[in-house]
Design a protein that fits this description.
Structural class: alpha+beta
CATH topology of the largest domain: Beta-Lactamase
CATH architecture of the largest domain: 2-Layer Sandwich
Shape: elongated
CATH class of the largest domain: Alpha Beta
Number of strands: 5
Largest sheet: 5 strands, antiparallel
Number of domains: 2
Strand content: 5-15%
Order of helices and strands: HHHHHHHEEHHHHHHEEEH
Length: 287
């Protein structure tokens, strides 16, 4: 059960010393005991066990907040905890994801107008569905012309080229798994998302390890290092922009300051032959 596994993983990582309580008796497992979390949250052990088992009927939001504080959950972990709780309590219908996402024409135009920023649009399932010319050149190893919806997670965990493309592969893998876990918490019944996760768990031990650890803390940073097949090492700044008019779509933007040597590398990349464009604005990767 997702709630049990998530809370158990968070108990296991938190030592009594870090929680500010005295360790008592011989400890058979790492981290906090259930009764210790209950004490920190100001509830009975039976009450906490009920929550850990996913039985949230009648459990108030205030109690869940106290448990989040007791386990020292960060912001993104609190978000995931809240999503799991809402799904179990049935207080919110999980958001349905469209079978097909459409990129607003204005977003494609905005990306195309930028000649110094490599931009791609990503769905909640981590499908890359649109880009500008520089984005296609930067992500050429991922954007297979034979695949209309190349998937970032499938590339990271199932394609050996990803270990060369992402110089800090472990961080890229952590972030990718975390993004999928968070989206699964929001959309647990999406069949396409579920099929992707099942495939990754079956075919990648690296993904399975991260999934079972419930590592929802994203390691996405404000910089990313690539080893591009055309340019070699490439250090770029990174920003993510949500697209409010399209549910769940985000624009990933990679750039360099004008006085950064990487800016010249990007300029050179922009002059290389990018994958041929298809459709209006080249939004379709199936080329």
């Amino acid at each position: 059960m997702a709630m049990r596994d998530f809370l158990m993983s968070r108990r296991a990582r938190l030592t009594p010393e870090a929680a500010g309580i005295a360790a008592q008796g011989r400890r058979r497992v790492p981290g906090l005991r259930r009764e210790e979390v209950a004490e920190l949250a100001g509830v009975s052990t039976e009450y906490y066990v009920q929550i850990e088992r996913g039985r949230l009927h009648g459990i108030s939001g205030e109690v869940l907040d106290r448990i989040a504080v007791a386990l020292q959950l960060c912001e993104v972990e609190c978000q995931h905890f809240a999503n799991l709780a809402r799904n179990l309590r049935g207080t919110r219908v999980a958001r349905p994801l469209p079978l097909e996402f459409r990129v607003p024409p204005g977003i494609q135009t905005l990306m195309d107008l930028s000649s110094r920023t490599a931009s791609v649009v990503m769905t909640p399932r981590l499908e890359l569905i649109a880009s500008n010319r520089l984005g296609r050149a930067l992500f050429a190893p991922i954007l297979d012309p034979r695949d209309p919806k190349p998937n970032l997670a499938a590339f990271v965990f199932l394609d050996e080229r990803s270990r060369q493309f992402f110089t800090v592969w472990e961080a890229a893998a952590d972030s990718t798994a975390a993004l999928l876990l968070l989206e699964w918490g929001r959309s647990p019944h999406d069949p396409l998302l579920g099929a992707l996760i099942d495939r990754l768990r079956e075919q990648s031990s690296e993904f399975e390890r991260r999934w079972t650890a419930h590592a929802v803390v994203s390691n996405i940073r404000d910089a990313q290092r690539f080893q591009h097949p055309e340019l070699g090492d490439l250090d770029l700044q990174f920003e993510t922009l949500e697209i409010p008019s399209s549910q769940g779509l985000v624009m990933l933007n990679f750039f360099a300051a004008p006085d950064d040597p990487a800016a010249e590398q990007l300029r050179r990349l922009g002059t290389t032959k990018a994958p041929a464009e298809a459709g209006a604005g080249g939004a379709d990767f199936g080329i």
